[in-house]
Amino acid sequence: MISKNQPATTLFIDRGCPLIRFFAARFNRWVLCCLLVSGCASTTDYEIVQVSDGVMTAYLENKPSLLHYHYTRVLREGRRNLVLNHMRAGLAAMELGEFDLAEESFDIALLNIESVYTDDENAAKARSLWYEEGRKDFKGEPYERAMAYYYRGLLYILKGDYENARASFKGGLLQDTMAEETTYQADFALLIFLEGWSSMMLGDWDMAQASFKEVQKYRPDFVIPHRDHNVLLIAETGNAPRKMAVGRGGAALGFIEGQGSREDGIRFVSGQSAYTGFPIENIFWQANTRGGRQVDHILAGKVSFRETNEVMGQTLTQLSLATLSMSPQFGDDAGVVAIVAGIIGLVGLGQQAVAERTQTQADTRYWDNLPDRVHVVTLNSEDSDRDLKAEFIKPNGRRIANLDKKITITPVNDRSGFAWVRPR
Amino acid sequence: MKISAGIILLTLVSLIGCATPPPYTQQTGVDSSPGRPTVYEDVNTPGRVAGIGLESQDVASMTDKMMGDMLATPILANRNVPPRVIIDSEYFRNESSSRINKNIITDRLRVNLNRASNGRMLFVGRHYADMVEKERSLKRGADGADGAPVVDRGTIKASRSTLGGDFRLGGRITTLDAVNTESGQASRTHQIIYEMVDLESGLIVWSGIYDFKKSARDNIIYR
Known about the structure:
The complex is a heterodimer of chains A (about 425) and B (about 220). Chain A is of the alpha+beta class.
């Protein structure tokens, strides 16, 4: 009953009022319903860009049909996955021998990797409680960025531009310095070797020697190429390392080695000669030895926030349910008790909702068509035919016949040669 | 029992306010903002997109500085007989960690010098040598039937040979990179040297150096 003698802002509740009992009873049911459905989890879906058929057709027109899947994703997934999709598309284009297209893709990827994100909106959101890390524009982990530089460098080699190739390999190496584990900083032997190879092809023997000696620090079995070597053969084997969200709340980034491949090594056969590839880089190792990331601290904070709210929410909800079930025992005060219990329940639900919506997951998008290992061979062009056979071999040394590939050494600047092969 | 409605409301608002989840717009993972029309930007100023590499304002600044320096060098710009100079990227080397088309530097330098020197230096287009040789062959008949000229001689007096250069530009771009892994701060120092070499004696008659250091730190989310 509302007393007319009281100011309008004050409400007096009569515990015996039928109206209160009426609302309390319904309030109870409503709160109970809320408590029951509070366990429903939300999922994250990212919107795709609506691209008209005309725009898509025009965009795909100059691209081989085998690459349409990748380039369609470039447009549809927009800026958030722009770098990732161009990395994938660029590598797929390289495999098809579409080198100009691959250059375009890697240039776009590197432009974005090299851009410094200071007050970017998506980056800010990715730091907030309510968005998962995957909300940010993808730039990749250091091993992925380094590999983008690696492929761009190879494309420069194919064009005979060893100077920019060397700049690319150096740029990739810089990405590898981001490792938290100091032991593993700038230990990307593949890039150091290629920096040296580029210097060697430019006639900078001293610089090349310095790089090759550095490679030996990380790969003691590595044999420095002879000075008259001018052909570089590169083979990639295995599948890309995968990322996964591990630990409390999935807030830590973990890696697992790429599965599903049988090959472990490479042999290049030219006439009666065979050259076994030196396994210069293990991409999974590079991914896995980076150590912690600075963003992990933010994600750990989110987990802590989530867990606190979860515990408090559950406690309040249980308290609310217990009070609600006991409310009839309060006789005439039952309505008021029910309302108070309901409020406690709502607060509990709210806290659970906050916990539920706190996004703690690490970003697990990954460059999925990367290899697991890279092998290199250097030789003198006079020691080999231009046409070679690449034989992929199992860990036990046996050849996997159905993966044999014929490759041709591409002349570079009329002075050197280059070939790059993957098993599939 | 009397309970103040104000207190209940206040409690509700404050507690539910804490509990109300924030706007949940995770589904918009793409930048659906309208495009931005093309804008002209001054090449002498940092652009909207910047990193720690070599950028347009660096190229503009250093070529302007080198140009002024060369024009103030008597052996190049104040000789009785204007020297023939070759400026291209053939001997301008990139040893840095910045990917760059070196022509953007040497082209800008040559064009600006050519305009500013006002005849005090003459520029030999060695990078066009192939084009010149082809035309000379057509004029002189080496490619024609029975050795006959394919085209006429034009209006410029014929010369027995094309011009040789007196001086040629050489140079080098080098960088020094550093990353602080704790703070994520990355820096790159560029050093670009330019040298004008006497093509008879090998003497370096002029040198210029331009260096700058840039540092940046990416958002923590990328470190």
